[in-house]
């Protein structure tokens, strides 16, 4: 009997390959997708030569696909370019800033995202990502399952929050305008 311990190990515990799971060819968990994003971000040769900047709109390129996921490269070349307020339908995702800085806006507030920053989100997560700086920005987006829709949302502002009295007053004014033939589109 061993005086140090009542437990003795027979054989080499490292020689149990039959107990280990084989490495996966493609990511399947949120942690693995985040790891894939970090791996792609670290290897600039995979994406840097593909980046384009467009002053008129954001640029995007599907970098790769795998079973149940897509990897997208996006750039915002000028200040103010952004995604608009949206969600990703039934897809979850990982957003990683590769170069520059972006601002993420949600109902909970605003977050500055610098190169290397990573955000993970679930289906139904509503946000807007904008380049608020004077420098171009590049980001990597992994969607799982692959992105099939990107519903846009309207920003809530004071003008959108109309009271019942305001609505009744506006309806009354429109009805009056309709009877005089001066009403057009009231939007």
UniProtKB/TrEMBL annotation:
<dbReference type="InterPro" id="IPR011051">
    <property type="entry name" value="RmlC_Cupin_sf"/>
</dbReference>
<keyword id="KW-0408">Iron</keyword>
<dbReference type="GO" id="GO:0016702">
    <property type="term" value="F:oxidoreductase activity, acting on single donors with incorporation of molecular oxygen, incorporation of two atoms of oxygen"/>
</dbReference>
<comment type="similarity">
    <text>Belongs to the cysteine dioxygenase family.</text>
</comment>
<feature type="binding site">
    <location>
        <position position="86"/>
    </location>
    <ligand>
        <name>Fe cation</name>
    </ligand>
</feature>
<dbReference type="InterPro" id="IPR010300">
    <property type="entry name" value="CDO_1"/>
</dbReference>
<keyword id="KW-0560">Oxidoreductase</keyword>
<dbReference type="GO" id="GO:0008198">
    <property type="term" value="F:ferrous iron binding"/>
</dbReference>
<keyword id="KW-0223">Dioxygenase</keyword>
<dbReference type="Pfam" id="PF05995">
    <property type="entry name" value="CDO_I"/>
</dbReference>
<protein>
    <submittedName>
        <fullName>Cysteine dioxygenase</fullName>
    </submittedName>
</protein>
<keyword id="KW-0479">Metal-binding</keyword>
<dbReference type="InterPro" id="IPR014710">
    <property type="entry name" value="RmlC-like_jellyroll"/>
</dbReference>
<feature type="binding site">
    <location>
        <position position="88"/>
    </location>
    <ligand>
        <name>Fe cation</name>
    </ligand>
</feature>
<feature type="binding site">
    <location>
        <position position="127"/>
    </location>
    <ligand>
        <name>Fe cation</name>
    </ligand>
</feature>
């Amino acid at each position: 009997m061993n005086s140090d311990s009542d437990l003795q190990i027979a054989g080499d515990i490292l020689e149990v390959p039959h107990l280990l799971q084989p490495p996966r060819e493609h990511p399947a968990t949120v942690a693995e997708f985040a790891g894939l994003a970090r791996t792609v971000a670290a290897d600039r040769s995979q994406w840097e030569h593909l980046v384009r900047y467009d002053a008129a709109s954001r640029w995007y390129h599907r970098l790769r696909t795998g079973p149940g996921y897509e990897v997208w490269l996006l750039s915002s070349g000028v200040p103010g370019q952004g995604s608009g307020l949206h969600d990703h339908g039934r897809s979850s995702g990982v957003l990683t800033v590769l170069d520059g800085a972006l601002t993420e806006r949600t109902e909970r507030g605003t977050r500055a995202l610098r190169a290397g920053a990573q955000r993970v989100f679930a289906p139904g997560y509503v946000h807007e990502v904008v380049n608020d700086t004077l420098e171009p920005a590049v980001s990597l987006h992994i969607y799982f399952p692959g992105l099939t829709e990107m519903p846009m949302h309207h920003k809530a502002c004071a003008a959108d929050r109309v009271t019942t009295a305001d609505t009744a007053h506006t309806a009354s004014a429109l009805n009056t305008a309709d009877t005089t033939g001066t009403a057009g589109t009231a939007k």
